[in-house]
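About this split. The held-out portion is used to measure sequence recovery: a designer receives only the structure tokens and must propose an amino acid at every position. Recovery is the fraction of positions where the proposal matches the reference. Here is one held-out target exactly as it appears in the evaluation file.
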């Protein structure tokens, strides 16, 4: 019997671990080359991990809900007629865009854990950075993860507990904890896993590290509604099946405003305490999926026409809902727009997509009374709500930015000048 040890390949763009969301195989199954073995959830997306070889599954390593590190042993296969697999280069990408790591080397994280002295605190780089930002010593926090690893949840619990003295050298059960929730006979408990868990972690991180504030204003979109209708009619007349919704116009108006207020087209580097003003306009769009909210990124959105934006946002939305997004579709965002369409309500205060410094909510477009030329008239109205990181964005800048977006939405013909 020849065995092949398949390790979790690189997941792209600095991602070092992911949650094992779902196994697609079990021990004893016969698999084909490129058959999906498992789904792994990273901070970016859920990616499928295909088998690099055909064979029979001897052992799966890890259970659903576990964290798996890059280059950690994932599956042991029995491959008939093949030599024992210890050579490099037998990996497979986790997604079409993800790089493939050499599979011969032992998992770096696993080696570090086994060779580290007993006093070494186990924690991911994100957890270490989070603790450092809040002045916490990881050695004083009891870890609840595997092998005593300190997790982000442990850091959050330490912060909620007040001073470090509340958690110094204390056993896990002694740390401040939320009250237990009782369960009735008709109740159902649903573990926080996969994308839902990642959303929870990212939202906690954003709210803990960023002092949010919001600015809301209304938009008279009557002329935008008329322009969209005319352009859709022109597209149909030429045989183009592209359908313009309002998002391409909103993206274009947002980019025009970002060019005037570039500090909003930025990421905040927590470690260096520097604002990184981006030279590209990669606009994130929040997409509701069966698993939760995903932010897909429209790359170089300033270079796309309205019709191209319509096609790209439609592609990203469909791929997100069908769990087919690639890693490059989820990375590199500089500013995010979130909209629930006709379910968008009057207004909301979106949570910033860390490490970006601003996010704009687009709310329900509906006819309502408005005052124009001292007359009460019926207009197509909607609200915009902007949330910003108050460490780097002041209220006056946020307000001016929103009014700049509104200028282009209320007089949408100006968008064509901005695109020229």
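Reference sequence for scoring:
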């Amino acid at each position: 019997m020849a065995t092949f040890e398949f390790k979790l390949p690189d997941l792209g763009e600095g991602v070092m671990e992911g949650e094992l969301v779902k196994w697609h195989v079990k021990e004893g199954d016969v698999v084909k080359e490129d058959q999906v073995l498992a789904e792994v959830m990273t901070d970016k997306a859920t990616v499928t991990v295909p088998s690099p070889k055909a064979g029979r599954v001897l052992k799966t390593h890890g259970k659903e809900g576990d964290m798996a590190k890059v280059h950690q042993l994932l599956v042991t296969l029995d491959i008939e007629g093949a030599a024992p697999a210890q050579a490099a280069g037998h990996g497979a990408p986790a997604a079409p865009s993800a790089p493939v790591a050499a599979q011969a080397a032992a998992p770096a994280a696993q080696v570090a854990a086994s060779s580290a002295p007993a006093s070494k605190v186990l924690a991911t780089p994100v957890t270490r950075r989070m603790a450092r930002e809040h002045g916490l010593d990881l050695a004083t926090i009891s870890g609840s993860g595997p092998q005593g690893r300190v997790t982000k949840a442990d850091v959050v619990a330490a912060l909620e507990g007040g001073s470090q003295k509340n958690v110094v050298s204390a056993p896990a059960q002694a740390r401040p904890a939320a009250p237990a929730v009782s369960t009735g006979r008709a109740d159902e408990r649903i573990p926080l896993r996969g994308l839902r868990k990642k959303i929870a972690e990212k939202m906690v991180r954003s709210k803990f590290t960023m002092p949010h504030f919001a600015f809301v204003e209304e938009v008279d979109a009557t002329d935008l509604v008329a322009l969209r209708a005319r352009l859709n009619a022109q597209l149909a007349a030429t045989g183009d099946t592209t359908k313009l919704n309002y998002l391409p116009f909103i993206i274009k108006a947002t980019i025009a405003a970002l060019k005037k207020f570039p500090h909003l087209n930025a990421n905040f580097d927590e470690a260096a305490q520097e604002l990184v003003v981006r030279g590209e306009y990669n606009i994130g769009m929040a997409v509701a999926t069966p698993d939760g909210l995903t932010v897909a990124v429209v790359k170089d959105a300033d270079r796309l026409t309205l019709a191209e934006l319509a096609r790209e946002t439609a592609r990203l939305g469909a791929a997100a809902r069908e769990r087919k997004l690639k890693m490059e579709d989820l990375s590199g965002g500089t500013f995010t727009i979130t909209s629930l369409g006709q379910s968008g309500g009057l207004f909301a205060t979106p949570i910033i997509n860390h490490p970006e410094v601003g996010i704009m909510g687009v709310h329900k477009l509906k006819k309502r009374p408005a005052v124009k030329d001292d007359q009460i008239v019926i207009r197509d109205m909607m609200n915009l709500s902007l949330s910003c990181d108050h460490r780097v964005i002041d209220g006056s800048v946020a307000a001016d930015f929103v009014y700049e977006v509104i200028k282009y939405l209320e007089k949408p013909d100006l968008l064509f000048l901005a695109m020229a």
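Annotator remark: The chain is about 25% helix and 25% strand.
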